[in-house]
Amino acid sequence: MPITEILKENAEKYGADVALVELDPEKSFRAEITWREFNDEANRFANFIISKGVKKGDKVAILMMNSIRWLIVYFGVLKTGALAVPLNFRYVTSDIEKCLKTAEADALVFGSEFNERLEPIKDMLSVMKFAVCTDDENTPPFAERFKDAVAGKSAKDPAVPLCDADDAALYFTSGTTGAPKAILHPHLSLMTACVTEQKHHGQTKEDTFLCIPPLYHTGAIMHWFGSFLVGGKGVLLRGVKPKTIIKAVSDEKATIVWLLVPWAQDILDAVDSGEIKLEDYKLSQWRLMHIGAQPVPPSLIHRWLVTFPTHQYDTNYGLSESIGPGCVHLGVENVDHVGALGKPGFNWQAKIVKEDMTEAGNGVTGELAVKGNGVMKCYYKNPEATAEVLRDGWLLTGDMAYKDDDGFIYIVDRKKDLIITGGENIFPVEIENYLRANDKIKDAGVIGLPDDRLGEIVAAVIELKDGVTSDEAEMAAYCEGLPRYKRPRRYFFEKVPRNPTGKIEKVVLRERYCKDTLVNEQLKR
Q1: What is the pLDDT of residues 347-389, one digit of tens each?
Q2: CA-to-CA distance for 173 and 25, rounded, in angstroms?
Q3: Which residues of 215-254 are buried (b: 16+ CB within 10 A; e: fewer)?
Q4: Coil, helix or strand at residue 312
Q5: Is 466 exposed, middle or buried (0-12, 13-18, 19+ CB in 10 A)?
Q6: How big is the CA angle at 317 (ends 330 and 18), to the nearest 5 degrees?
Q7: Is the pLDDT of residue 45 over 60?
Q8: pLDDT band for position 516 (50/70/90)?
Q9: What's the confidence (pLDDT) of residue 293?
Q10: What local confidence, expressed as pLDDT, does residue 179 receive?
Q11: pLDDT of residue 414
Q12: Residue 396 in 3-state DSSP?
């Protein structure tokens, strides 16, 4: 059934119970909403956009920070039969414009934090069916106020006929050329995420899920879907400081928390230093900590389980093309196999394949392929890119891996040059192209360097033009034009090695700089 039916059922079963809590400790802000209010507000927003001419199959982009209203908008869009199009809140103006065009967006809902970034493309927004700013007091002239938009609208369900096969959402990733690709998922994918997540982690109505990562990321919203399925409470937290997270767990009585590696590491460091005294908080109800979105150092988990010996732990693997986490997971019962990616998730298949799609034997490295109801329909209006990764229902993940004799899958390397820093995917070519636009730069190569906290950091190898000079400070200032998470942390100045066909020899760069980085880190210790 369409995922919107779950919200409707939760409103009927648990109407007066709290569905969502929003926390912003820096602003001393806390808000909550019941399941009935959640459903009513989603219906009001749905009826508003229908009044604006939005119909089944249209696309409504969402550019907002995490909030209760984000989810109201998301489900309001789905209730109309339109497609929700979540956008990365780190996008700069050119990224936003590119994604709106790629998705063929008919409308945009945004927070006032993005006013300046949207100003240069206001003419583009003016031809849409609507542009709504969710922060009423800071609504720019080129948009409507959310409060006015939904005022007086009916809380009755619009009752648009929907089925599992209907398109539901477009999630963005980046291609190897730096151009964003829109991933098309039907309602069946969203329901698959709900069921898989709940089966893996056993959420009940009594659980409270603390959600910290951005909701535009499938790794956040799809984990929350497990609690959503059973009517469990969700807490949306802004802020990733160790004390902020621990206090939220304590105050909101959270039982499940999904973390990124750096956040988990920061919490452990704060405990070890005495900054956090665990006895000052109510944490006995916290039963599960799980991690995904990037490689997880086994040493981190061993350390975590010493500090929190009663916790269950799970590693989750997925990608936006497979509706986020869960197509492969370790399983809370397999903590003795920390270091492995895990086994196929509930209702998923996984195998390691050679170039000809035949299955590799145990212990043989090949590409990880997954299959299940959560696999995307396609890259939206991009048949060439779709054909590269979809083969008879199997999704080629681009990750190189092997399977042991017990069926556990281990990631070896990435087939493409993807860099994962703090859970965010970065494709080097986008940064390389940006660097090459600098008048002083002749060539540039970007790689990921190992980092204990973020998994990887971005490093740029820069070849300057003859007769010019530059340094790290100048390059860092230039790269402020990039989103913060894409900015290089290290700069090296030398000739960029290329092979006879003109391709950058990334293997040479990794061997040279990754080795040096590891040696330097060991010397520091």
Answers
A1: 999 999 999 999 999 999 899 999 999 999 999 999 999 999 9
A2: 31
A3: bbbbbbbbbbbbbbbbbbbbbbbbebebbbbbbbbbebbb
A4: strand
A5: exposed
A6: 90
A7: yes
A8: low
A9: 66
A10: 65
A11: 66
A12: strand
For the record, the structure tokens of 162 come out as 């929907």
Q: What is the pLDDT of residue 175?
A: 41
Average per-residue pLDDT in the chain?
92
Per-domain residue ranges of the chain? 1-187, 421-524
Name which of 330, 255, 323 is nearest 292 in CA terms.
Answer: 330
- Return d(Cα 477, Cα 329) in angstroms, integer: 41
Residues facing 370 on adjacent strands: 350, 395
**Cα–Cα distance between 234 and 252 in angstroms, integer?**
10
Element (H, E) at 224: helix 218-230
d(CA 505, CA 164): 45
pLDDT tens digits, one per residue of 287-316: 999 987 666 778 889 999 999 999 999 999
Burial of 179 (0-12, 13-18, 19+ CB in 10 A): middle
Ranges of H-type helices in 231-297: 242-252, 261-273
Q: Give the pLDDT of residue 511.
A: 85
**What CATH number was assigned to the domain covering residues 421-524?**
3.30.300.30
CATH class of the domain defined by 1-187: alpha beta
How far apart (Å, rounded) are the C-alpha atoms in residues 479 and 492? 14
Secondary structure letter of residue 469 according to DSSP: -
pLDDT band at 425 (very low <50, low <70, confident <90, very high): confident
- Between β-strands 312-319 and 18-24, what pairing exists: parallel, antiparallel or unpaired? unpaired
421, amino acid identity = T
User: What are the residues whose beta carbons fall under 8 Å from the beta carbon of 12, sequence distance 6 or more?
Assistant: none
Token pair belonging to 471 = 């340094």
Predicted confidence at residue 420, as pLDDT, reads 86
Q: CA 116 → CA 53, 86, 92, 238, distances in Å? A: 27, 19, 10, 22
* Rg of the chain over all Cα atoms, to the nearest angstrom: 23
Q: Which residues contact 204 (CB under 8 A, 6 or more apart)?
A: 230, 232
